[in-house]
Amino acid sequence: MACLLVSRRDLLRAAGAAPLAAWCGAVRAQQRRPQTQALLVGVATALHDSGFALHIRRAIARDTGLAVDTTPGPSERMLALLEQGEVDVAITHAPQAEEALLRQGLVHDRRFVASNRFLLAGPMERPAAPVKGRKAPPPRDPLGLAGGADVAAALVRLAQAGNQGQALFVAPAERTGARAKERSLWQAAGLEPQGPWYQRAVGGMAETLAQANERGAYVLVDRGVWLTSRQRDRLGVVVEGDARLADFYHAMRSFRVNHPAGKLFLDWLTGPTGRRAVALAPGGYSATMPRG
Prior knowledge:
The chain is 41% helix and 20% strand. It is α/β, with parallel strands linked by helices. It starts with 7 loop residues before the first helix and ends in a 12-residue tail after the last helix.
């Protein structure tokens, strides 16, 4: 067993800080992935696709000189890598999965980083060219949902139309924060979506949006990706503003590895300088937790 190869002094020092089994796991993780100069941060695909992650990497390098590498993926996948010690820090938007790992003592130092919100977007019918001197009417979605603020009611109408062959919905990929949010919204609507109209996306948030755009389908999309994407010309915002569409990002550290820059990164990211960087990031993220 790898843990038995460490010195007695190191073992005694670690015993006061963490359970033996957890510390042995940390030793094995260190042997599996030696620390490099750069801090390895796993980020939700939405943060990568919106440009948020690159912005933060550049900002902290400019402010502190700290080298950070980011690897994108579904939130639940990033949390699994964090628990295994394959990344030093993770920034995700899957609150239930994050809290479950915290309760088990598998991650620590969880901190709020940013908030945004999801949008329900859908196909838009573009009006014919207006008569000269008259203002063109705004685009309208085929189901007449645009302008609503009740996402559950919109999903009920969407499912009815889908079952009648009048609408498509592209669901986020598994293990993503968007997928977890989407499931909770269908539950709020009292529905279990199924049928040919309910189609699963492949890839991250930007790819999900692009697939919905190509198919002329409705989609739940992170606002940060929506604002920065160029692959949404056939779609428009249908529902926004519902409190249930709130989206929260948290950062946390792994127990299995202890990169010396991990705490520095979180201190910077959640401190005054980091919060300013978050507020200036592409995608319209907020560095403050909304009230209510």
